[in-house]
Every structure is written in C-alpha cells, then in structure tokens.
Design a protein that fits this description.
Elements: H1 5-11, E1 20-25, E2 33-39, E3 43-48, H2 56-77, E4 95-96, E5 102-107, H3 121-138, H4 156-169, H5 172-177, H6 179-187, H7 190-198, E6 205-207, E7 216-219, E8 222-225, E9 232-234, H8 236-247, H9 265-279, H10 285-289, H11 291-311, H12 324-341, H13 343-352
Antiparallel strand pairs: 1-2, 2-3, 3-5, 4-5, 6-9, 7-8
Helix pairs in contact: 3-8, 3-9, 4-11, 7-11, 8-9, 8-11, 11-12
Bound molecules: adenosine-5'-diphosphate (ADP), 2-acetamido-2-deoxy-1-O-phosphono-alpha-D-glucopyranose and magnesium ion (MG).
Residues 26-29, 31-32, 34, 45, 83, 106-109, 112, 114, 214-215, 217, 226-227 line the site of adenosine-5'-diphosphate (ADP).
C-alpha cells in the first residue's frame, strides 16, 4: 500500500472515498501525479496538478467555468464526452493542500484503453472525430471568462526564443550531443514566421491544447477526452496539429530506434477526415486552409520544447534517464522532416475534404 498523508487527507474530503483500500501511481502523463484509488466498491482517479507548470488559481477557475456547463451539454445530447469530476463534501472540484497543490478526483473508466501509438486507422479516425465533437462543446463556452493556465503555452516564436537562450546557456557536452537536432531546429525557423503571418487572422477559441492520443480514453465504442488542464483560449490549429504529431508515427514519442519512426499517410488521412467530420463545419476557411501549418508548427514547437528541456537539464518534463528528452527530440525531428517533404500533397488532401 502506497502511503502519502497528503493524498489521504484529500481523499477524506469526499463522501465516496472514506474507505480507501489502496492507491497506486497510474498512467503515463509527463506533468501531473496520477493515482488509481480503490475503495470497497469502486475505483477513482486522483490527480495532483503540477503547480510548477500550471497557474493553479486560473486552472481551478477554468474548471469551474466549464464543468458548470458540461452536465447540461451532455444531458441535452445524451452523450458523455469526458469522465465525471467529483465534488468534495463541501462542493468543490479541487482541494488545495498546504503546499499549494490542487488535487481532484474523477470517476475511473473501467476497461478503458489509452494508446501511446495508434494501432489502426479506425482508432485515429474515432479519436479525431471525438476531439472534433469535443470542440463543438468548447465552442459553446463563454470564452471571455477563461484564464490562461499557462502563459504563452502554444507560441512557436516564444518557444524558439527559449530554445535560443538554452543554446546560449547549455554546457558543451550537451550541445555536442544535440548538434544535429540544434542545426535542424535553427534551419526550420521559417515555420515560426509562417505561423506568425497567419495568427492575426485566426479566430480565438477555447480549445483543448493537449490533444495527444493518450489524452483520449476508448471504451466500448466510445471515446472520452481527458486531461482538461490546458482548456483555454487558443487555436484549433494546435489541436489538429498535436493529433497529427501523436497519431501518425508507428513508434512511441520516446522510441530509441529512429528507424521505427515514420509518417503514416493512412493515419493522417483518417484523423483529418475524423476531425473535420467531428467539427461539423464549425471552423472557418482560414482555419481549414491552415490546419497543416498547425501540424508543422506544433511538431516544430514540440521539437524545440524537448530540446530546450534537454539543454537545460530536464526541469520540465518527467524523464526516466538523462537523454530521455533528446530521444524525444529525435522522434519529433524525424516526423517533422517527413511532413516537410510531403507538405504539398498533404495540403491537397485536407483541401479535398
Ligand atoms: P497528465 O496531465 O499527467 O498527462 P492525465 O489526465 O492525462 O495526466 O492522466 C494520465 C493518464 O491516466 C492518462 O493518459 C490515462 O491513461 C489515465 N487516466 C486519466 N484519467 C482517467 C480516468 N478517468 N479513467 C481511466 N484512466 C484515466
Ligand atoms: C505534456 O501532460 P501530458 O503528458 O498529457 C505537455 C504537452 C506536450 C506533451 C508531450 C501541460 O502532456 O504540452 O505536448 O507532454 N503538457 C503540458 O508528450 O506541458
Ligand atoms: Mg495526459
């Protein structure tokens, strides 16, 4: 049995978790601490939100805004789009511990699968369609009431500046090991300029902002969207882009054997079709014309983020070994390189839908 006095104090706040039998670390997220909690009759997901990454007050506020409207939305459509987040006996969705960390409890979806790699195109299609449908819910939210849980989160220009700073500061041995990836990243700065040229014409929407495949849960024939900590104003380009990033490669984000990483056109087509169908005409022409730019921008941004973290000694992402972020960088480089080579054909496909 795991023991964590803070987790136990938090669990005491809920009527449903007075008799906890066990709780264990769970899932493969890079940011929060997630536990599977077992009681006599039930299971729950307990999460401690990383206060070094998220602005806790903004996050707690945003959950209050969208959870207030979620029940009605789901009831009206007779559809569940995300797991239920429980209220404490005092009626809050989060409890703040004495160190300032926010905790929350969600229902556990039994028998649900989440994937690091899309096993077939049906999964890519269904996941993207669910994300498009989730966007329809986000489109109903009062966007002026949202706060930024992370400032400058999807901002390629800012990520590029942080990367250049890291290159200035990094020790020689790390710079040597990441030589090729640094050169590749410096050479693709045009993606930042392309994104910046389009950004002022994009509508600001409430979007999910972390649409990697393992932030979706599959059970029976349904898909639920999870990990709502980055729901805030941004652009659908990034939501589409992060699906391209995480659905199209047949290898994990941290696959050490680079030869296993490649860009699967059939998954690209399946997810693009699924997302556009799920959105049901709720994006405008400028957004649609620039979806591919969103994919290129987010994979570039992710390359820069992993590489920056590696050069700075891994302050941000959870790592299992010293080179973990460099390995992650290399998979992004390979994927982005493949997309850059095929971009005309990919753009043509998007516009054909
Ligand atoms: P992080 O922000 O750290 O990525 P997530 O909210 O994505 O945290 O949760 C981490 C993992 O835990 C998910 O990828 C998923 O596998 C699992 N998970 C999260 N919520 C649930 C749930 N309600 N039911 C079942 N599994 C869940
Ligand atoms: C993080 O929290 P998680 O593991 O779902 C990160 C994303 C990255 C992703 C890369 C808040 O997502 O931005 O794309 O890792 N989340 C945050 O795997 O930084
Ligand atoms: Mg996650």
């Amino acid at each position: 049995m795991n023991t964590n006095p803070i987790a136990e104090t938090v669990l005491k706040q809920y009527n449903e978790t007075q008799t906890v039998l066990s709780y264990q670390p769970f899932g493969g997220g890079h940011i929060n601490d997630t536990y599977l909690v077992k009681t006599e009759n039930n299971k729950f997901i307990l999460q401690r939100v990383n206060k070094n990454v998220f602005r806790t007050n903004a996050l707690v506020h945003n959950y209050n805004v969208f959870l207030k409207l979620l029940d009605t939305y789901q009831l009206q459509r007779n559809a569940k789009i995300t797991p239920t987040i429980l209220k404490t006996a005092k009626g809050s969705y989060h409890t703040i511990d004495h160190e300032g960390f926010a905790w929350r409890l969600a229902e556990f979806i039994p028998g649900a699968s989440s994937y690091q790699i899309a096993p077939d195109t049906e999964v890519s299609y269904k996941a993207a369609r669910a994300m498009g449908e989730f966007q329809q819910f986000l489109n109903t939210l009062p966007s002026n009431e949202f706060e930024y849980t992370i400032i400058n989160y999807h901002n390629p220009a800012n990520r590029f500046r942080a990367f250049k700073d890291a290159v200035e500061k990094a020790p020689e041995n790390l710079l040597n090991k990441a030589k090729d990836e640094i050169t590749f990243s410096m050479n693709l700065q045009n993606i930042v300029n392309e994104y910046d040229a389009v950004a002022p014409s994009l509508p600001s929407r409430i979007t999910h902002n972390d649409t990697k495949l393992d932030n979706m849960l599959f059970y029976s024939d349904k898909v639920l969207v999870i990990d709502l900590d980055t729901v805030m104003p941004s652009s659908v380009l990034f939501d589409y882009g992060d699906m391209v990033r995480t659905f199209t490669s047949p290898a994990a984000e941290d696959e050490k054997d680079e030869s296993k990483v490649n860009f699967r056109h059939n998954h690209f087509k399946a997810l693009t079709k699924g997302y556009i169908e799920g959105l049901n005409n709720s994006i405008n022409t400028i957004e649609k014309n620039n979806l591919l730019l969103g994919a290129r921008a987010i994979i570039y941004e992710q390359t820069l983020r992993f590489l920056t973290d590696y050069l700075l000694g891994n302050p941000y992402y959870k790592v299992k070994y010293a080179e973990h972020n460099l390995v992650r960088t290399k998979t992004q480089v390979k994927l982005l390189d493949a997309i850059e080579k095929d971009k005309n054909e990919l753009q043509e496909f998007i516009l054909s839908l």
